[in-house]
Amino acid sequence: MQETLLHVSNVYKTYGKSAVPSLDGIDFTVEKGEIVGIFGPNGAGKTTLISILCSILNPTLGSVKYYLDGEKTPREIRSKLGFVPQDFSFFPELTAKQNLSYFGSLYNLQKAELEQKIDDLLQKVGLFHVKNQKVSTFSGGMKRRLNLIISLLHNPSILFLDEPTVGVDVQSKIAIMNLLQELNHQGTTIIYTSHHLKEAEEFCNQIVLIDHGKIIASETLTNLLKKHAVNNLEELILKLTGTLLRD
Amino acid sequence: MRKLKASIWKELLLVLHDKVGLLLMYLMPLLLVFIITIVQNSAFQIVNENKLTVLISNQDRGSLGDSLVKALVHSGSFEIRKNDHLSESAVKRITIDEDAMLGIYIPSNFSERLASNADNISKLMLEQMGVIEKAPKVTPEKQEIAIYFDPIVQENFRISVINGIQAITNGIENEEMVGKLFQEMGYDSIPQNIRQAIINRETKLKIANASLNEVAELIPNSSQHNVPAWSIFAMFFMVISLGGNIVKERLSGSFLRLQTIPRGFALTLISKFLVYLFVALSQLLLLFLMGIYIFPHIGLPQLAMPNAFLPFLVVTLLSAVSAISYAVLVGTYAKTQEQANGFGAISIIIFAAIGGIWVPNFVMPDYMQAIGNISPLKWCLEGYYTLFLKNGAWSELIGTITFLFLFTVICQLLIFIKLRIQNYI
Fold first, then answer.
1. pLDDT at B126
2. Which terminus of chain A has a smaller tally of CB atoms within 10 A, N or C?
3. What domains does chain A contain, in order, with CATH numbers?
4. pTM of the predicted model, to two decimals?
5. In this prediction, does ipTM exceed 0.85?
6. Are residues B222 and B368 in the same domain?
7. Positive or negative, the Cα torsion across A116, A117, A121, A127?
8. From the CA of A70, how many Å to the nearest CA of chain B?
9. pLDDT at B250
10. Which residues of B are less than 8 Å from A103 in CB distance?
11. How many CB pairs under 8 A join A and B?
12. Which H or E element spans position B403?
């Protein structure tokens, strides 16, 4: 029996006086424990959608409802939400441990619990041995892994990832994807965007395809491939969105 | 509380890692206060304590030229280098070579003309008093003493030197005139009791500083002027560190992450505010301690702290809060770190200039003084001058306190509007 976690209803978003909406009537539902991939060309509205789901932006119209201990708005469930931005959102001047301690404390984690959690996560992504090094000395892959685990300190029920594996080596990618799989097995719902379509095919069980601010497909990957008679996600995206450059 | 402590600790670490910011916030003001106080103190000493070197060529055939030179020596303000072989053009030419600040050329007919004029005036006075029937009609001749300044001597120095020399020549002229009067009345010279009365006639000037507090007087000097002024400048210059820091965090994406953490953003702003309040107060403490304990050891006047401690504390806190609010405002509205640093630095320099940090407000034209009223630095400075120079207290600080409070409120309001539009709070 599937249980609804998130319902997005008729969401519109326009920026300033722009006549063209970034999101144009988005409707979809996410069930607990799903891994949802949001795909589309550059400028399609993926980051705007994730920003609204995370309470960073407010929709111009429409509603976003979470069903965690009752019906909640994105703002009301922020303590159960994890967000991994595409940019490195930490302080390079500080060490990995100082960064993790700071963000963990903002989630009100107690000292002993936080320290244990920091050590566990650093071990899992292979950064334990450099925990006292300044992050500015880290490689791109190490920074990407740190960027991820900062969002996991408070055991979020739902995790949003905006391009979590962009610009990393294959080893870092495997470490990140393994950790995400593990989290999902433990019950964390994951919503993510990526341009690594092969990785997404293996990872996601639901696909939401956006173009020009509208959902043009939303189903399981298997159903979508069958329905549109294509072999993989890349072919599906090209078939539904065309080859025209968007930016 | 634990969240706030962690947030404050993070801000402190970031400040400590910002080496350039630390240099700008602590070392730059130390150097500024140190250098400017020394320079102003030296300028003060040149005018008031040191002797100005004067090259004099006295060509006077009479005795009054010598009287003038003696009076200049007696004044104690000049170091006289006499060379009577120099022509006027030579004095003009070699004043600079001789390393003198000015050259004086006394013409050969100085005594003759001065005596002639004194004679004429005394006769006119006697005619007026009916002692003689008719004074001969003579056009007064103007005696001319040529003064040549080294071009580097500034206008205010020139004026004070000219006034000094003019006072001496006036004294000589007066004495000569009184002497002629007595001669006309049949005396050989001015009677001793009259001469003594003339010498004692000088109006004594009681010179003291105006003070709002009769109990204790603070002595205005370069330290009392510069330490508070440049401390304010240093506080407001934190816009480079704090404004830049805010833009950097916003652009790096950490603000985005904070938006998804309950109260994360508000805590960050509060902790930034508290840490930079500590920075501002520590800047002031450092500069004041330098004024109190180091200045006297290097020949500068010791900084005397105001007696009104509570008003001093309030003005200090309000100044610091205004500086922080302005820095956060710049950081909130700037689109890039370069924009925050550039605009922040230039705006503070302009505020300092129109606010009287470099040149006192009262020497500015009226419209500039009016414009200066928009500068928070002007009001901070006015508050500190009321405390450090005029020994004032609450009633004299109403303007400062009101302006700084309103300035802070307006900055905070603009910050709130921007952050609300951007959905940060």
1. 78
2. N
3. 4-241 (3.40.50.300)
4. 0.76
5. no
6. yes
7. negative
8. 18
9. 86
10. 257, 261
11. 75
12. helix B398-421
